[in-house]
Each structure stands twice: as structure tokens, then as C-alpha cells.
Amino acid sequence: MNRIVIAMCIVFWASCGAKKTENQVVDKKLNPNGDSELAVVMRIMHEHAKQLKEEILAGKSVTPYPEEIKTINTAEPTPGMIGNKEVFVGFAGLYLSKLDSIYLADVNQKLQYNHMVNSCVDCHQVHCQGPLAAIRKLYIPNN
Ligand code: HEC
């Protein structure tokens, strides 16, 4: 339970709204339904990536990804968050193909997983830099 609360705090802290005033952040916590569809999809993607990391590190089979992730291109973003939709769609396609690659037979899952995290970082460097630190924590270290 505590872990969930901490995870939620990190996600709120990491959201793109670096310019938000304190009041708006409080409003957001009181009314989570006020978030954009895309922000909700992103949280699902983030939670799923954390789950994949744990499974791959534990040598377990990987859980299929939630269907919501496929709505990345149609989910409504926070106004002004996506400057160029074509660029966004390009990055989204890259992410989805890297995600699919994790599930192919006979791949190095650790490597494919880290490629997927790269694709999160690539899009975020262009569109929304707030969560980058949290996203980089998803990498599986090479050792
Ligand atoms: C195609 C571009 C793109 C890709 C790929 C992408 N993101 Fe995002 N992400 C965004 C945009 C744009 C937002 C802002 C959404 C909004 O506020 O509507 C966002 C928001 C977020 C947020 C903040 C959500 C919130 O609560 O406001 C997190 C966390 C996040 N992304 C994590 C990830 C992770 C983890 C991955 C990879 C598994 C990923 N993103 C891949 C573009 C992307």
C-alpha cells in the first residue's frame, strides 16, 4: 500500500506541468479525473514498464501489455502538450514496435526492454521533459 502511495507521489511530481502553480497541483490530486486521457495512458505505460523490469530481472515470463497502450495516438493530450502531431505519431510508432519486440521469441529481453525505454526517452526529450528522470530509472543496468 505504501509503495503505491509513493509511486503515485512520484508520478504527480514527475508530470509535465513543471509550470503549474501549487494550487493547480493540489487540484489535480483532489480530482485525478481532471487529467488528460494521454496522461492516464502514460501512467499505465509507466506502471507496465516497471512490471516488465521486475519480471525480466526475476527471469519470469512477461505479462502482455494493457490494451489502453494502443490508444497512445488517439488519447486526448493536455492542450499545448504536443506541438507537432506527426512527430509525436512517429515516436509513438517507434515505442510500440520496441514494446512488441520484447514479446518476440528468442530475443534478449533485457536488451529489447532497454531499447523500449530509449524510445520513451526519445519522445520525452521533444515533448515533455518533466518525467525524464523517472523514466531513466526504468533502465535495467548492464552488469
Ligand atoms: C510518442 C511520445 C511519447 C512516448 C513514446 C512516451 N511518452 Fe510519456 N508523455 C508524452 C506526452 C506528450 C506526455 C504529456 C501527456 C499529457 O499531459 O497529456 C507524457 C506524459 C508522461 C508522464 C506524466 C503523466 C502524468 O501523470 O501527467 C509519464 C510518467 C510518462 N509520460 C512516462 C512515459 C514512459 C514510462 C514511457 C515509455 C514506456 C513514455 N512516457 C513514452 C509523450 C510520450
Structural class: mainly alpha
Q: What is the CA-atom radius of gyration, in angstroms?
A: 15 Å
Bound molecules: heme C
Shape from CA axes? globular
Q: Please state the average pLDDT score.
A: 85
Structure commentary:
Helix 3 packs antiparallel against helix 5 and helix 4 runs antiparallel to helix 5 (109-127). The model is unreliable at 19-31 (pLDDT under 50). The radius of gyration is 15 Å and the shape is globular. It has helices at residues 2-14, 22-30, 37-57, 85-102, 109-127, 132-136. With 143 residues, the chain is mainly α. The termini are far apart. The protein has one domain. Bound molecules: heme C. Heme C is lined by residues 11, 14-16, 36, 38-39, 42-43, 45-46, 49, 77-78, 81-82, 88, 91-92, 95, 119-120, 123-124, 127-128, 131, 134-135.
Keywords summarizing the entry:
143 residues, 6 helices, mainly alpha, binds heme C
Map the helices and strands:
Elements lengths: L1 H13 L7 H9 L6 H21 L27 H18 L6 H19 L4 H5 L7
Bound molecules: heme C (HEC).
In short:
The protein has 143 residues and is mostly helical. Helices cover 59% and strands 0% of the residues. It has one domain (2-136).
